[in-house]
Specification:
Blueprint: E1 2-7, E2 10-16, H1 26-33, E3 44-48, E4 55-60, E5 66-67, H2 71-83, E6 92-97, E7 100-109, E8 114-123, E9 141-146, E10 152-159, E11 163-168, H3 174-185, E12 195-203, E13 206-213, E14 217-219, H4 223-236, E15 243-248, E16 251-257, E17 262-275, H5 279-287
Parallel strand pairs: 2-3, 4-6, 11-12, 13-15
Antiparallel strand pairs: 1-2, 1-17, 3-4, 4-5, 6-7, 7-8, 8-17, 9-10, 10-11, 12-13, 13-14, 15-16, 16-17
Length: about 290
């Protein structure tokens, strides 16, 4: 039984890995996430056993690669667990990811079934090694990255268990994201690739951002990207408040940046459907090996 939900247009499938009758190979993940021949999503969330937390999760990008952490994905996973009766509103629970253990709480559910979910996303690190950046250990604070196409862009790097490159701009244009985002995400400076955000502070407590996710491309919203943008904006002094609203094309998430750079993410999740795979499609997945 598959579940699908979205957080501000960033959609994920969720499933219990122990009940899958096929191997989760990269081709199988790509087929499931395909919006034309599969179920269609920005990624796949797989419930997995954990000896360190109450639940475990594996997070797959639509290209078949694995992600260390996803803020929207984790909140959607929380809604999935609630739909399965595994967690209740108002109780804290922990989830083990490849990027560390995250604590979540379903704060409430609206009359029309939209979940309001909070996630403790860990602590931001600004060290170059934390994002797999080559060269001596340092905090990357406005270094100039030269792109293959000849463009140059000032970058700030942030890790919250997965790597991010934040580029603050005077003006945001989605065309710039689509042109430069892929070049930054796959730049040889970053050993593991990187998530990219173009952002600009618009108020003492608000930042707007466009997101290019590693392994997924342009997304309407991203929880971990919102955390990276908020942390970078606070550190750069571009906002004066530590409770930062991050406005993306899909909507706004609230990120609270603690004194020790701990990050608390809050925002909505809407359930879309639950369903089963048809026999012919399941056979195709099994044949992928």
């Amino acid at each position: 039984m598959f579940y699908k939900g979205h957080g501000l247009g960033n959609d994920y499938l969720a499933v219990d890995g122990s009940k899958l009758p096929f191997a989760l190979s990269p081709p199988a993940v790509r087929l499931l996430c395909d919006r034309h021949t599969g179920m269609g999503s920005d990624g796949l969330l797989v419930r997995d056993p954990s000896s360190l937390a109450e639940f475990g999760i594996r997070i797959y990008n639509p290209d078949g690669s694995e992600a260390e952490k996803s803020g929207n994905g984790l909140r959607i996973f929380a809604a999935y667990l609630a739909e399965e009766g595994a967690v209740k509103v108002g109780s804290l629970f922990s989830v083990e990811t490849k990027g560390g253990i995250v604590r979540l709480e379903i704060i409430d559910i609206s009359a029309d079934g939209v979940y309001n979910i909070e996630a403790e996303m860990g602590t931001a690190s600004f060290l170059s090694s934390a994002v797999g950046l080559e060269g001596p250990e340092r905090e990357v604070d406005g270094e100039v990255l030269e792109l293959p196409g000849g463009d140059k862009v000032a970058i700030r790097t942030v890790s919250i268990g997965n790597p991010h490159c934040v580029c603050f701009e005077d003006e945001l244009m989605v065309e710039d994201l689509r042109r430069r985002g892929p070049q930054i995400s796959t730049h040889p400076w970053f050993a593991r690739g990187i998530n990219v955000q173009f952002a600009r502070a618009v108020a003492p407590d608000e930042v707007e951002a466009f997101v290019w996710e590693r392994g997924a491309g342009e997304t309407m919203a991203s929880g971990s990207s919102a955390c990276a943008v908020a942390a970078a904006a606070v550190k750069a002094g571009l906002v004066q408040e530590r409770a930062v609203r991050v406005r993306m094309p899909g909507g706004t998430l609230l990120v609270t940046v603690g004194d020790q750079w701990e990050l608390l993410l809050q925002g909505p999740v809407e359930s879309v459907y639950r369903g089963e795979l048809e026999r012919g499609f399941l056979k195709r997945l099994q044949e992928l090996g």
